[in-house]
């Protein structure tokens, strides 16, 4: 049976959504984590902060790896690692164990997110590339929204362990769908090896450098707001579920 390009895009978007859900599912329950494990606000926030920090470190290596081996193997590696560490989160006995699991998922994130360009180039015509990339990006934000909105409700019904288990099962199902349906359309989707000097040449472009700075500020504000939103609103009588 021939796989539709929209099916491939939808499953990739679901994989990207899960990576974002597992990132931000702790954002609305920082106070719950503090009370459960007896840790400070700063330490509890590490469950979220490790994602942007590790993304900065691994984004370029992940991109180079995807260029070398193709997006199916590159994104596939990220999906496997994400699923494995999502199951590790079910063991909620210690905060450090939970943090190690989050670090593992954070390391998988750039391998998943950075594959979108290669996948779109392989499956979609040039006239549809912006639309396809936009739809994949929407999937990421849907994952963020579900992680922020659903987690407090699930925690109140199933507890931390039950909620982590539910997310792990969904992650496993997503991984299975990925390896069944997402394949390279062309025989060899790899590009030439990325050279480090080519990467640093981007910083010589003043317009691009301004864009980097503006993006850094915007994303930094977004990450900070989502991380501490519950703690900002709690003193005003607004709880996680609200």
Give your account of this protein's structure.
It is a single chain. It contains 9 helices and no strands. It has helices at 5-24, 30-37, 41-69, 71-88, 95-113, 116-123, 129-181, 196-200, 206-233. Helix content is 78%, strand content 0%. Helix 1 runs antiparallel to helix 6 and helix 3 (41-69) packs parallel to helix 5. It is mostly helical. The chain is globular and about 50 Å long.
Report how far apart the termini are: 45 Å
User: What level of helicity do the residues show?
Assistant: over 70%
- In DSSP terms (H or I, runs of 4 or more residues), the helix count works out at 9
Strand content: under 5%
Summarize the biggest pleated sheet: none
Radius of gyration over all CA atoms, rounded: 19 Å
Q: Mean of residue pLDDT?
A: 88
The outline comes out as: globular
**Poorly predicted parts:** none
Count the beta strands: 0
- Structural class by sheet pairing and helices: mainly alpha
N-to-C SSE string, H for helix and E for strand: HHHHHHHHH
Descriptors:
mainly alpha; globular; 78% helix; 0% strand
TL;DR?
The chain is mostly helical and 242 residues long. 78% of the residues lie in helices and 0% in strands.
List the helices and strands and how they pair.
Layout: H1 5-24, H2 30-37, H3 41-69, H4 71-88, H5 95-113, H6 116-123, H7 129-181, H8 196-200, H9 206-233
């Amino acid at each position: 049976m021939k796989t539709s390009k929209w099916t491939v895009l939808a499953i990739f978007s679901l994989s990207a959504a899960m990576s974002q859900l597992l990132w931000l599912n702790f954002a609305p329950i920082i106070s719950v984590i503090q009370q459960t494990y007896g840790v400070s606000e700063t330490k509890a926030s590490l469950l979220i902060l490790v994602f942007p920090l590790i993304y900065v470190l691994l984004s370029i290596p992940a991109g180079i790896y995807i260029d070398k081996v193709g997006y199916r193997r590159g994104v596939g590696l990220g999906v496997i690692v994400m699923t494995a560490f999502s199951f590790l989160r079910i063991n909620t006995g210690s905060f450090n164990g939970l943090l190690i699991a989050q670090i593992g998922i954070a390391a998988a994130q750039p391998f998943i997110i950075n594959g979108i360009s290669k996948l779109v180039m392989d499956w979609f015509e040039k006239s549809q590339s912006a639309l396809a990339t936009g739809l994949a990006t929407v999937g990421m934000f849907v994952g963020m929204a579900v992680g922020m909105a659903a987690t407090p409700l699930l925690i109140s019904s199933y507890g931390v362990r039950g909620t982590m288990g539910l997310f792990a099962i969904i992650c496993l199902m997503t991984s299975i769908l990925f390896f069944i349906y997402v394949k390279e359309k062309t025989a060899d989707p790899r590009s030439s090896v990325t050279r480090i000097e080519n990467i640093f040449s981007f910083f010589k472009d003043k317009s691009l450098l301004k864009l980097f700075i503006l993006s850094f500020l915007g994303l930094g504000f977004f990450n900070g707001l989502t991380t501490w939103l519950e703690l900002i609103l709690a003193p005003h009588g607004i709880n996680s579920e609200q």
